[in-house]
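Input sequence (259 aa), recorded before submission:
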Amino acid sequence: MKDIENLFDLSGKVAVVTGGGDGIGKGCCRILAAAGASVMVSDLSLEKAQATAEEIKAEGGKASAVGCNVLDDNDLTALVDNAVKTYGTVNILVNNVGLGGGGRENPFKIDKAYVERIYAINVFAPWQLCKLVAPYMEQSGYGSIINITSMSSLNNEANMAIYGSSKAALNHLASNLAYDYGPMGIRINSVGPGATHTNALASVLTPEMEERMLVHTPIKRLGEVADIARAVLFFASPASSWISGQVLMVNGGGVQTLD
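Predicted structure, token format:
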């Protein structure tokens, strides 16, 4: 196939990524830029967003940075407005920001405020951003939304009920919005990372924990940021032009549980 490279070519496309200052979000920004997209990098830390944008530009890509607190509706609106003002439209949205989990959600020690905060970040913010970018995607004739979910959306574990259920809600949100957005020419899919080497994981991971995780992982290693970013590129690109409403778990073929 002579046009194989075109399947992953994002030249002329504009991507917005939340939580792009570090980890999986940063990896997504870099791979989308490498594929030719202009990337609006957003992060709660403007400095981290700027660092990612500068790294992309040093690699020959196009990127700008903006600070964004996804709990603030005004920030969400400003994020999209900035992307449109800078690059003319929005074609790709990666809802990467998430919070919770880590086995720290003892149901008898968390309160309603915690639950509301997790759902506000993991479900409401992505929903709101989808709504904000949809008109631009429809107008441009190209739209792909990718939500970063989690294997916790499918697993059953202790002290993970709120995070896991919020990510399950995010999965179901996407599968239903696919029906609403499909006629507008917009695809929406989800990528669910397994245990992936990031700074966040490094802060808690021990060699013993990793060994226990690999017992349930057919491909005998934990994930790398690049593994998740490549799945995001697939959904962002024309290669997945007839795929919507799906959840792709990128987890080495198993589950990285500790038991």
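Checked by second reader. The two ends are 45 Å apart (CA to CA).
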